[in-house]
Amino acid sequence: MTRTSAGRDRFAQRSLGGLHRSIKQARCLMVGAGGIGCELLKNLVLTGFGEIYIVDLDTIDLSNLNRQFLFGRQHIKKSKALVAKETASRFNPNAKLTAHHANIKDPNFNVEWFKSFTIVFNALDNLDARRHVNKMCLAADVPLIESGTTGFNGQVQVISRAVTECYDCTTKPIPKSFPVCTIRSTPSQPIHCIVWAKSYLFNELFGASEDEAPEFDHSEDTENAQEIKNLRQEAQELKRIRETLGQPEFARNVFEKVFNKDITRLSEMKDMWKTRKPPIPLSFQSLAPSTRGGLHSSFGDQKIWSLEENFWVFCDSLDRLSQRILDLRGTGESSLLSFDKDDEDTLDFVAASANLRSQIFGIDCQSKFDIKQMAGNIIPAIATTNAITAGLCVMQAFKVLKQQINDARMVFLSMSGDRGLTTEPLRTPNPSCQVCGVARLTFECDTSKVQLRELINVVLKDVLEYGPSISIIHDKLIYDEEYEDNLEASFETLGIKDGSFLTVMDESDDDKLRRVNLIVQIKHRPQGEPGQPFVKPARFDIPVNQAQPPSLDSLVLSGKDTGGNSSAHVNSDVEQSRKRKADDFLDSNQEPSKKVKAGGEIIIIDDGYIEID
Amino acid sequence: MSIPGAPTAKEKKYDRQLRLWGAGGQEALETAHILLINATAAGSETLKNLVLPGIGRFTIIDDAAVTDEDLGTNFFLDDDSIGLPRAQKACELLCELNPEVQGNFINDTIQNVLKSNPEKLKDFTTVIATGDIPTATLLSLDSILYPLGIPLFIVKCVGFTMSCRLVISEHPMVETHPASTVDLRLFNPFPELSALVDEKASSMDDKSKMTDHQHGHLPYVLVLLQTLNEWKSTHDGQPPSNYSQKNEFKSLLRSKMWNADEENFEEAIAAVLPHFNAPSIPSETRAIFQDEKCTSLTKESTSFWIIARAIKEFSEKNGGLLPLPGALPDMKAESKDYITLQNIYKSKARADLAIVVNIVRSLLAELGRDSEEIAESEVETFCKHAGYAKLIRGRSLSEEYEKSPRAQAISSDLSDSTALIHYYLGLRAYEAFISDDNNTQHIAPGAEDSTVDADTEKLNKHVTELLDKLSITHSPELLEGTEKAIGEIVRAGGGELHNIASLAGGIVAQEIIKVITKQYIPMNNTVIFDGISSRTHVYQL
């Protein structure tokens, strides 16, 4: 059927007036095609946006279908970006859609590529990618509409370089990590046992054990040197047991090792149990007769299992996982498994192991449903919040396209009964922000050859006339006056490559001279110039920072204070705390970085690190 | 063989929402049958957000045929739908979203259904009315549904504006999901708690009896109770009652610290303001206790009212205290002390629950009903939320429009030209316009370019008539905001914008979910949203 688009667009043209044309001509990028993404794509297509690029590296899972309506059961395991494009294009044949099943951090999505867009929408589920897109949009000077939801709460923020705050102008909550000894020797909360099961036991038996999990905090290791040594030995023994995988006595070997032998050793360390109840080992022998026959064939997800039920699930899931490893070995592919909250075998194993350990230490057992939430950092997600949030994103995009950014607002939604939405004016950039600091420089160099020393001496000190008190950050601190370990290192060995950003902070004591942060964008240029592996930039003026320097109290580094120390130098005098926190979240892509809180409260409800839309 | 504890595919699909409203809420959704009157974009988006989380059934009543304009705003209609019944096509595409949901449609007007078979409305658990429905029809719906206790959501979505009016007669909620249900009983500790304070904290100030480690790990609840004992002995047995006394108390706590980094003392100091409150029954709970449905139970009383009555009787016998919820916040402490303390609160909560359960059983017996018909788990949920339960007594549409309009709520915001009440007035005028006897086709204002000015004039006139009827004084200055709102409404020509309709669908569906699950507190009773400023406001009209 052929039809003019006049009827279709009639109402949009009427209500949007002149804006309708800018919308049709806009070229937008949507990063993330999950919960918010599905809604947003539908809204963009039906509002008449002319050209939309979609990037998402994720595939579709059954648990997405309660809200991600562009997907159906037939799409499970397929690319979100590609399926979203396919479904949405049916609803407006005039829209030009392009989808990439890829990671937005891939090098081909470079600053030049970002510059080609009129506007960018973040519909992401993790901090790392959000911060990356923020950085790219700042570098490309493209406005960004940032959004997030968790349960009934959501928020939308407009980010425009040098006009508004950027995503990193305010501190984001830093994920929690636990001292190794708490996890391995002295757990006192269910989460400790869950982390043990997921990040230690599971990996030692089925995963890549040398990849140690980021939720382990080693800052207290030196205080507990002897215990750390014992724990290493225990891990070695477990590795030997791993070699018996597939043999009939495997389950028994593992059980006896981690729930009996190791526990018996621990309980004998009298000093450790002076003020705590010592753990009580479990016996395979006494639990074994209670297997299968005596149990109901189905016990619920939300019910707390008995000791026997945990034992049964432990043995059964261990069998299932072992079989998978054996099958994988047969195919010649990597025979490693990783924990996935939606993978029933891995979740059963972690739930049962965590509960058996809780039992040993007198900690309350948890239902599988709750363990899934804690182990998988599950953020509740529903269609309604996503619909509202995506709608608000488009409203804010209208303001940006109309060049009325001053009318744009930060919008929050909450479930409360007396108000639905609250708005506040956009804030101006935080002058001390390490990411959007207003001075920028592109540094062309051969990243395999150029040394940090050359950047500091030739570019920063000679050309730009920085004093001695500077610090340089690349995800974490790589240089300051007292930390010169990396001077001779090449960019490559420091992980600095084409497209990387460095932040140079002026730390001079004189308020009148201290300059704003300088963002150095690295552009790789093989061979550099004759005689030197880089191109010497021209001099330019960097404005003085008008803001008060941040007080030390407001600096946060991985939950600990820092006065500009390297994050590699860990603080060893943090007290081992028995503090219980219901909201202990773990994160696998933690990037320690000190950040400054802009005056007032933290305004980002960060919706976590996995699974928000 | 099925694996124990393996969630069903359905549980997996709904996993992310079960974490918000639990199995009970999900069951309520799955037994719901929702009626949507008119498959407008906002109506279809609302249904989408209900079909995805898995309502049981829906029915669409609509006699329109799909037009070109529909395709530009309604995602649930496609090219192949043109000219076909909108109710049918929307139903088909919505059903594709979730095979578990059953969809029906009636290709007719709501007016005809009301005429021929008004009993039909009894089939539904919730009704959504969208699109251009004249006032008389809305009032008929109101007069049938309100007495039946079937919630009605009236949704208007025009241009950048939307409103949602919740019409519900009575809505009791137990699980309101407060941020915390902690009650530490600091001002009236029960004997087991006092005994623990004596055992663990009485020598808190004696360095010869406690190590630094023990002192720094004394749970803050015990620190507070021990310090309160000391305070009371010098204050006629009274706890700190006002702000300055509370500050004095904080200084006292600070003076008891052995070194500056005792986190447990910091926690104790932080707990003074939020937790030092004289025990009282919150006004929302008191309103439930005083409600006639609570004071005079009948054979037909729902479990909510029977449990409420039992808790009322419990509190009367317990010095005005509600059953203890039993939750204990996280705190710095040795594990075993924390567990001991937790068990003391838990046991007390269980003991209180047992008493309430007994009262429930005997109330049921007195009413001649099965004394076991209310499950203990339901009583337990109520006991945990006794201080947070809430009852909404709503207002019918006929009360708002005719019997007892709330002129005050309207007039008080009128002088603020940015207040959203102007959009309310604009939308009431819109409704009056399409309800006009001479407008038999219910043509929207501004639908034709040629009549924009005349229609604007008519809407302004409807507003002044409405204000006159409500005896609200007005002037052109006061109505500046209204005039602007009317300008926007007429400009839209009765059309929806997809983005606003989608947003409206999110807001409305969220409120419907709150009402169906009886969890969280719905916005009572009129939400107005303005897309231009991205604001909402809730009026009680």
The CATH homologous superfamily of the largest domain in chain B is termed: NAD(P)-binding Rossmann-like Domain
Stated plainly, the CATH topology of the largest domain in chain B is called Rossmann fold
Q: What's the oligomerization state?
A: heterodimer
Q: What overall geometry of chain A do the principal axes of the alpha carbons give?
A: globular
How are the elements arranged and paired?
The complex is a heterodimer of chains A (613) and B (541).
Chain A: H1 6-16, H2 19-25, E1 27-31, H3 35-47, E2 51-55, H4 80-89, E3 96-100, H5 111-115, E4 119-122, H6 127-140, E5 144-150, E6 153-159, E7 178-179, H7 180-184, H8 190-206, E8 216-217, H9 225-242, H10 250-267, H11 284-287, H12 307-331, H13 344-361, H14 368-376, H15 383-401, E9 409-413, E10 421-425, E11 439-445, H16 452-463, E12 470-474, E13 476-479, E14 501-506, E15 518-524, E16 555-556, E17 595-596
Chain B: H1 9-13, H2 15-30, E1 33-37, H3 41-51, E2 57-61, H4 68-73, H5 86-95, E3 102-106, H6 110-116, E4 126-129, H7 135-148, E5 152-158, E6 161-167, E7 170-173, H8 191-201, H9 212-216, H10 220-233, H11 243-255, H12 263-275, H13 283-290, H14 292-295, H15 303-317, H16 335-366, H17 376-384, E8 390-393, H18 397-403, H19 407-414, H20 421-435, H21 452-469, H22 480-492, H23 498-517, E9 526-530, E10 535-539
Parallel strand pairs in B: 1-2, 1-4, 2-3, 4-5
Antiparallel strand pairs in B: 5-6, 6-9, 7-8, 9-10
Tag the structure with descriptive keywords:
heterodimer; A: 613 residues; alpha/beta; Rossmann fold; Arc Repressor Mutant, subunit A; eight-stranded mixed beta sheet; 13% strand; B: alpha/beta; 4 domains; 23 helices; 10 strands; metal ion binding (chain A); UBA_E1_SCCH (chain A); Ubiquitin-activating enzyme E1-like (chain A); nucleotide-binding (chain A); nucleus (chain A)
